[in-house]
Amino acid sequence: MEAIGIDIGGTGIKGAVVDRISGTLLTERFKVSTPEGGKPADILESVATLYEMIISAHEQDSLPVGVCFPSVIRQGHTLTAANISPEWIGLDAERMFESKLGTDIHFVNDADAAGIAEVKYGTAKDIPGTVLMLTLGTGIGSAMIHNGNLIPNTEFGHIIMDGVDAEKIASSRSREKLGLDYAEWAKALSRFLELVTTITNPDLYIFGGGVIKNHELLLPYIKSDVEIVPAQLSNNAGIIGAASLAI
Ligand code: BGC
Predict the structure, then answer these.
(1) Which of 4, 19, 112, 174 is an S-S bond match for 65, by CB 3.0 to 4.6 Å?
(2) 80 CB under 6 A from ligand 1?
(3) How far is CA 171 from CA 16, 85, 202, in A?
(4) pLDDT value of residue 234
(5) Mutational pocket test of ligand 1: of 34, 167, 173, the residue with most ligand atoms within 8 Å of the beta carbon
(6) 172 CB less than 6 Å from ligand 1?
(7) Given CA atoms 174, 212, 131, 94 in this order, what sign does their dihedral have?
(8) Is this model's pTM higher than 0.90 or not?
(9) How many domains in the chain?
(10) Could you identify the atom of ligand 1 that is nearest to the CA of residue 135?
(11) What are the residue ranges of helices labelled H in the chain?
(12) Minimum CA distance residue for ligand 1 atom 10
């Protein structure tokens, strides 16, 4: 029950072999930089390099591979490109990676992978009902999971708020760009949550992303009728979730 998980992000591409029963990493976490511009052909090369690093560190080859990526993924195709090169739009990415790596892979949205990891192995393990994970980074990713089943590609970061995509005013990067302190950021996030709650009425929110390491700076300021918990698996959630979905 081992699988390789690969997480393609804006600055780095990370991967490892994962034990799909416990959700723990069985190798070190390997990393290569995301090539400048994030174009498909360059990312493909970098992922192939990373894949070689992972399989040469692990005796067993031909493991299932899961890859997560910041785009709507439908039937293996990358359909959107909010914070990545527009060249990704409409590509049959899953097939492209399969022929480059010479193995079957499963392609999935990055937030969906992180959410599944938190529900299977992390902070929302065994919680019934609807769990909604929001990842706060360059954009806002979302993962909606009902009784352990993922409803993929929810993309709540693109809900319109104040006339623009919510992630433009409520993501971690926009906090930095707009020079907001945590209390001001929390106000924008609270309004965003109100919108998401109106549509989904989840039982629990999980907040993830790099900033959640310091969640005590943010979570106490957020107003929400629904309980919010910080993610547990931090940097490894994408890798673990992608591996767990690789079948
Ligand atoms: C993308 C999502 C992604 C999120 C987090 C958004 O801009 O549209 O697909 O999950 O960023 O990376």
Answers:
(1) 4
(2) yes
(3) 27, 19, 20
(4) 82
(5) 167
(6) no
(7) positive
(8) yes
(9) 2
(10) 5
(11) 40-57, 93-101, 110-121, 167-170, 172-178, 182-200, 237-245
(12) 141
- Measuring from atom 9 of ligand 1, which residue has the nearest CA? 71
Q: Are residues 59 and 75 in the same domain?
A: yes
The pLDDT of residue 126 is: 86
Q: Indicate which atom in ligand 1 lies nearest the CA of residue 165.
A: 7
Range of the domain at 144: 127-231
Cβ 167 under 6 angstroms from ligand 1 = yes
Is 109 near ligand 1, meaning CB less than 6 Å away? yes
3-class secondary structure per residue, 20-59: CCCCEECCCCEEEECCCCCCHHHHHHHHHHHHHHHHHHCC
Distance between CA atoms of residues 116 and 112, nearest Å: 6
SS3 72: coil
For ligand 1, is residue 154 a contact (CB within 6 Å)? Answer: no
Residues 209 and 178 in one domain: yes
Whether residue 168 sits in one domain with residue 145 = yes
Dihedral (CA of 62, 50, 151, 214) sign: positive
Counting runs of H as helices and runs of E as strands, what totals does the chain give? 7, 15
- Within a domain: 132: yes
Regarding whether 144 and 85 lie in a shared domain, the answer is no
Token pair of 179, please? 């020079």
Ligand 1, from 14, 73, 85, 109: best to mutate by most atoms within 8 Å of Cβ?
109
CATH number (domain holding residue 85): 3.30.420.40
Intervals of the chain under pLDDT 50: none
Tell me, what's the pLDDT at 58? 87
Cα–Cα distance list, 162 to 40, 49, 169 (Å): 33, 42, 9
